[in-house]
Structures are given as structure tokens and as C-alpha cells.
Amino acid sequence: MLAFPSISNLCVEHAAAKLGTRGSGLCKKCLTDVEKRTAKLISKYEKQIEELTSQCNIKSDECSMAWSLVESTNQELDRLKMELHQKLVQTDNFEQVLDTQTDQLRKVSQNYENDKKLWAAAISNLERKIKAMKQEQALLSLEAHDCAHAIPDLSKMIEAVRALVAQCDDLKMKYHEEMAKRKKLHNIVQETKGNIRVFCRCRPLSKVETSSGYKCVVDFDGANDGDIGIINGGTAKKTFKFDRVYTPKDDQAEVYADASPLVTSVLDGYNVCIFAYGQTGTGKTFTMEGTERNRGVNYRTLEELFKIAEERKDTVTYNISVSVLEVYNEQIRDLLATSPSSKKLEIKQAGEGSHHVPGIVEAKVEDINEVWDVLQTGSNSRAVGSNNVNEHSSRSHCMLCIMVRAKNLINGDCTRSKLWLVDLAGSERLAKTDAQGDRLKEAQNINRSLSALGDVISALASRSSHIPYRNSKLTHLLQDSLGGDSKALMFVQISPSDNDASETLSSLNFASRVRGIELGPAKKQVDTAELQKVKQMLERSKQEAKLKEESLRKLEENCQNLESKAKGKEQLYKNLQDKVKELESQLDSKTHSQITSEKQQSQLSGKLKEKEEACTALQHKIVELERKLGQQHQSDSVVAALKQT
Question: Which stretches of sequence are listed as region Disordered (predicted)?
């Protein structure tokens, strides 16, 4: 706080107080001087205050700037400290890495020295061996020269051996070609006989089986010749013979290639049945359906049918339709139906041994692009379940029926054939699957229908007079394609695991019994609807033939009348000819007289006019004669036509 100045040893404030209270402390002049001095001092001090205030502000600004500079300096110092710390850490890391690399380099150097010693020893050893081999080579060379001198015709013998080797290779090639032809002819003979052909396919071991320590018990040494062996009980081996054996390395295309000739016979009018048999989890569904990237038999079959139909379109027209159904718990279910129906589907006989299921959806497919969607629709609707053996086990028999109607554009022949592609449900041992409830009922029905299939196979093998097709829905549906007029092929699927050895032997035993069965020569399936049309056409043709015979009889009577009329006209024609001859003779005489008259007229110029008139008259007569001759020619043509009739 500022102090007031003092005047004459009196405080200005104190003096002012005395003046205010007493009013007579100083004279006016003194007061004036005091006031002036006071005012000057106040102004002076105010200026000083302002200067000090401005200096204070400047110093405050300088302090704030200095403070901010100190803060920035501190921040920079902290940053430098952190960088220094990081550099120190990096330096420590580099030192550690350097130490590690130094150790590694030391180890590498030691290894190098050791390897160098080993390589030096190995090289010296090789040098010794090379030296020994050179010595042996020299000895062998001497022996070879001795042999060459001892056998002067060695080169000829070598050429002869080479010729024999080439001949042997040629014979091997011819042998393989003949074996392929023999196998092809054998297959043709088997198809002609009507034998059920059996192909065996083995899946690879799964990851679960491999991790569980299971081993492969299947021997594929004779697979190329159709032989497959099962090692059961240690060293015991049982061998089976089939038409074809596929190893786990064979792909889907190779599997279908052997079934292709049988498939194409459907387009020729034959009924065909192809089914996959085996225990659950052996890959039957994969063989028949496959995946979108690895198609199975079903898709490849339709693909080839469309391909061949396109090649034959100039001579034969084909209509192809597809039905997908399943036999689940001895009930037929339509897998292409858009909505579930309460009506029970039953099998009816359509006549002459053929069967059909009224009410089943027949999807007409025009090209291969529509096929996969139809097959997927059926596959997605199929009943599947889980058990101890297979997580996604098929609980029904899935049956794809391909119906082909063909008409030959050259001779008019019509056929109606059927191809069944059946993915059978897996045979199961109830003790092994531990099925209960619905799964137990499904397994019992599956085994019952497979047993019925076995009964049909046994009856066919023994040529029994009664074949029990009606014991199961499965065999009843396959009756027209598993009988004496059809062709059949079975894929038996097996597991290579020793855990499934007993089931594998059971499947192969069943398949070996199936292989020898003869169904008899297959017959073309004539379209009965077209046959009925042909019968109706024959009846119409007979009626038309009767009408034509009646009209022909009337025509013969008319011909006889025309012949009698023609005889009369012939007599008239003869008479006309006689008249014509007379007219010709008269014409000749008149012509002679005319010549004579012309001579006379040439001599007589005065009679020229009369000659012209006579000539005109003669010309008229000639026209009349030509007209008569024309009539005669017309009558001749009429008579000739009548004779021809």
C-alpha cells in the first residue's frame, strides 16, 4: 500500500483532516501549494504505478513464456530419456542376440570342423573304394576281352537276346490286348445270359479308424483280375471272385465307366437295376449320389443318357422322366412331393409283368442342368439318423427310377424301359449299433427287407418256380427289373478295417452268391400303349381292306363292261379303216385326174380360174379327211386306254 507524503513534518492526510475539522490550520496559499504539490506527486506516483504495472505485466508474460519453455524442455527431456531407455533396451537385446549368434557361430564352427573331418574321412574312404573299383573294372575288362575272344559271336547273341526281349514285349502287349478282348467278350456273354454282375468297392480307412489303431485286412494284389482277399484271424486269408474290384485309389469316373454299357441298354428298351449293398458306413451313398464336385452313379447315368439321346435324335426320339422315392419302415414315400400326402402309396400291376405306383411324381427332365436339382431335392428329403457305427446313417432304401420312352423314327418301333438306381440302407447288427426306440424299429425293418432281397436272390439262384417278390416293398418295386427279362448290377461296398471284418465277410459271401445267378436273356420292353394303338390301326386297316375289296370287285365289273364296249369300238374302228382306204383310193384317182386337169389348165391359160376353184374344193376335202383321221386317232387312244384298264 502507498504512503502519503509529509509536508512540514505533517502528514497530508493528517493535515487534510485537521483542515476539514478545524478549517483554520493553514493559509490558503499554503493549501494551494500543498494541493499542487500533492497533485504533482499523485500524478508522478500514478505514472510510476502504471510503469510498474506494465513492467509487471511484461515480467508476467516473460515468466509464462519461460514456464512454457521449461515445460517443453521438460517434455523434450522426458522424450529423450525414453529414447535413451529404448536405446539401452535395444542395446541389451543386440548384446543378447550377438551373444546368441556368437554361440551359434561357435557351434557351427565346431560342427563344420567335425563335418570337415567326417567328409575328409569319407572322401578318403571313397577314394580307396574308387581305386578298388578301378582295379575290379580293369579285371572285369580283361575278363570281358577274354570272353569276347572266347565267344566270337557274342554280338550276334546279344542281338538275338534283344530280339527275343522285343518279341517278348510284343507278346506281352498282345496278351494284354487279348485279355481285354476276352474280358469284354466275357462281359457280353454274361449280359446275354442275363447274369447279375457284381462289382466290389472298398473305401479307405477313416481318420477315426486310423487314430484308433485299426488295420486294413483287405488284400488287393489280385484286384486287376477281379480277386479280393480278406485276412481274418491272423494269417488266414479268404479270397472272393467278382466281375470287377475297385481299390480305395479308384475314383468315381472309373467306377461308373464299367457300369456304362449296362446303363446305355436302357435306351435300347431293356429294364435295368443297379443297386449298392453293404453294411452301414461303407460308402454306398457316396458311390450312388456322390457330391457336387465328385458326382456319383446317379448323376453320371442321366448325363450319359442325355448325351446318347442327343446323338441319336435324328433316328430315335426319347422322353426321360425321373421319380425319387424311399422305402421307410415298409412304407413308400415320394421324395419329390411338394407337400406330404395322407394317402398311402401302393404298388399296382400295369400289365404284362410291369408295375407302377399310382400318384408318384414323375419329374420330366429335358437336359442335364435340371437333373442335379431334382436329385438334391430327393436326397434332402431322405430319412437319416445316427447310431454307434455311422453318424449320418441312411434309415431307408433310396430308389431313383428313370423311365425312358423311345420311338424309332425309321421303323416306328416304340419301347418303354425302366432303370432303377437303388441306394440300399446299410445292414446292421443290433448288438453293435445299440439301437433303441425308433432306431431299433428302423433297423429291424431294414434287416427284414434285406432278408427278403436275399430270399429273392436265393430263389432266382435255385430257379424256383415261385419268387417271393411280394414279401417286401423293396423287392416288389424291383420285380420288373430284377426278373428274367432284365439286366442287373450290384455294387458291394466293404470296409477295410479289422473292426468290421466279420461284417465284410458276410457282405462278400452274399455278393458271391449273387454273382452266379442267371436271369436269362433280357427282352425289350415294348410300349403297351403304342401296341394298343397298333392293334387299333390293324383293325382299321382290316375294315379299310374289306371296303377296298368291295370297291375292287365293282371296278372289275366296270372293266368287263368297258371291255365289251371296247370290242364294239374295235369293230367300228375296222369299218372306219376300210372307209378310209376307199377314200384314199378315191383320193388317188382324183389326184391323178387333178394332175391331168392341171396339165390341161397349163396349156389353157384361159381356164386358170377354174383350176383355182377346183384346188380350193380339193383342199376342203383334205381338211375333212384330216379331221376324220384325227377322230380315228382319238378312237385309237380310247381303245388303247380301255385295253390298259
Answer: 585-610
- C-alpha distance across the termini of the chain, in Å: 165
Residue 333 and residue 326 in contact, taking contact as beta carbons nearer than 8 Å: yes
Q: pLDDT tens across 549-558, in order? A: 887 777 778 7
How far is CA 292 from its chain centroid?
8
Residue 452 burial class via C-beta count within 10 angstroms: exposed 0-12, middle 13-18, buried 19 and up: buried
Task: Tell me: do 300 and 182 sit in the same domain.
Answer: no
Q: Which helix (H) or strand (E) holds 399?
A: strand 397-408
Flag whether 268 is in a domain: yes
Q: Is residue 563 part of a domain?
A: no
Residue list for the binding site for ATP: 278-285
Does residue 207 belong to any structural domain of this protein? yes
Q: What are the residues whose beta carbons fall under 8 Å from the beta carbon of 629, sequence distance 6 or more?
A: 580
Query: Do 276 and 171 have their domain in common?
Result: no
Question: In the prediction, which pLDDT does 12 show?
Answer: 46
Question: In the chain, count of helices (H) and strands (E)?
Answer: 14, 18
CA 25 – CA 209 distance, rounded (Å): 130
Distance of CA 337 to the CA centre of its chain: 24
Q: What is the tens place of the pLDDT at every residue in 346-376?
A: 888 776 667 788 888 888 888 887 888 888 8
Residue count of the chain, please give it. 645
- My answer on whether 333 and 397 are in the same domain is yes
Rounded to whole angstroms, the Cα distance separating 602 from 275 reads 117
- The answer to whether residues 126 and 266 belong to one domain is no
**Of residues 295 and 573, more confidently modeled:** 295
- How far from chain centre, in Å, is Cα 22? 132
Q: How confident is the model at residue 21, as a pLDDT?
A: 43
What is the pLDDT, as a whole number, of residue 263? 80
Provide the domain limits for residue 127.
85-192
Mean pLDDT of 496-523: 80
Contact 378, 401 (CB under 8 A): no
Distance CA(454)–CA(69), nearest Å, equals 102
Distance, CA of 264 to CA of 330 (rounded, Å) = 31
Containing H/E element for 67?
A: helix 28-150
Binding residues: 278-285
Q: Are residues 123 and 221 in the same domain?
A: no
Q: Are residues 183 and 206 located together in one domain of the fold?
A: no
Give the model's pLDDT for residue 434.
59
